[in-house]
Amino acid sequence: MNKLKNKVFCVIFMIMTLVSTGTFAAYNIQTYNQQQNGVIRSLNETMFEKFKDMLEPPNDAKKDEQEFGNVRFMDHTVYTVTLDSSDSPIAIFNHSDSEADTEEITALAEKIMEHGEGKVIGNLYFTRYSYNYVSGDYITIVDNEQTNKLLIKTFAMTLTLFVLLEALIFFISRRIALWISTPVEESFDKQKQFIADASHELKTPLSVIIASADALESNPAETKWLDNIKSESDRMNKLIADLLELAKSEEVNDKSEFSTGNLSKLVEKSTLTFESVMFEKGVTLSDDIQDGIELDMNEFKISQLLSILLDNAIKHSEAGSAINVELKQDRDIILTVTNKGEGIPKGEEEKIFERFYRADESRNRNENRYGLGLAIAKNIVTAHNGTISAKSENGYTTFKVIFKAK
Questions:
Q1: What is the share, in percent, of the chain residues with pLDDT greater than 70?
Q2: How far apart are CA 165 and CA 230, in angstroms?
Q3: 86-to-113, 136, 152, 361 alpha-carbon distances in Å
């Protein structure tokens, strides 16, 4: 079971981590591309022809001064170094509000010319300057200092969020893995318990049969050993039949055997069937059955459900008491079977529907009862889109079945 939990955890953690990693990478790539596009735009939009005209004596100095003041690249600090035919710097234009160190820019331009003509952007996380060098014409230089800081800050911020998110994902994955595996673990535990209980129940009659067979072999004239063998064989046969019935009831999913029938008449018929048994036990029947209630049902299974509930009520009723069967419909269909007598131990109202549950081990074993009846009843009710519950109050025990209206 731990392997299942770990596998579920790993799958969930990997999926969520891939999503968060993809988001983290996509955001940083998008930010990088935005900054890179800004640098490319700044390198391309040099307006060099206007700068070249500014080198000529102006006709209207004030007008040219105004035009020069409007030449700005707001996203980056950009410099344009004009060159003569021999690649000697003529003038430096600063397209930002920052102060430019002429000597530093000139030295940078000379260093760029040593690497040859072309456009170089570089890694914007670390490269300080990007440039576009056209020999004998101009060099456009973009200062990436602010871009470097922005990208590193963005990466550090998203990395911190990523680490915190991974811690949260780890916790959530653990919780989800536990939530998913808990029902499986419970089912697995119930299956193991079921096998253990079934094995125990089968082992007892088998031991008696084997011992009686050995005794009969030693003393063939003694017939009581044959009686023991027959009794325990019948007991084993009933147990196997109940187990097969339980398995069938857990698979009542074939709706082809369902049809709309008169539930009221079916309940009346079932109660009449048990009148003789009630008479022998010394209990009476009281019923309140609303006429004309119909249900989409497997009639055989519903008859079996009624038999289980009535048999259970008779077995646990006091002599001289009454069993009350009530069927009514408001919106949902409600069936109740109430008896006076031995109640359900407090806190075990849900456990009685589990396989092999028995409140009194010795009594049930003597009566060949294996605690499978109510488990079968619950499966039948569930298959009919219903719920079943039980409670004991003031000496009365009531089983309540609700069939949900469609």
A1: 78
A2: 69
A3: 11, 6, 39, 110
Asked whether 167 and 16 are in contact (CB, 8 A), the reply is: no
Give residue for tokens 């456990």.
351
Contact 129, 110 (CB under 8 A): no
Is the CB of residue 147 less than 8 Å from the CB of residue 39? yes
Angle between helices 145-218 and 2-44 (to 10 degrees): 160
Residues in CB range of 293: below 8 A, 6 or more apart: 262, 263, 264, 327, 328, 329, 333
pLDDT of residue 361: 46
The residue type of 148 is N
CB 145 within 8 A of CB 118: no
Residue 305 has pLDDT above 70, yes or no: yes
Side chain identity, residue 318? E
Amino acid 67: pLDDT: 44
Residue 400's pLDDT is: 94
**What three-state secondary structure class fits 276?**
helix
214 has a pLDDT exceeding 50: yes
**Which strands, in side-by-side order, build the sheet including 386-393?**
284-289, 322-329, 333-340, 396-403, 386-393
Question: Which residue, among 215, 210, 208, has the nearest Cα to 235 in the 3D structure?
Answer: 208
Strand partners, 324: 286, 338
Question: Does 386 have pLDDT greater than 60?
Answer: yes
CB 132 within 8 A of CB 74: no
Q: What pTM was estimated for this model as a whole?
A: 0.50
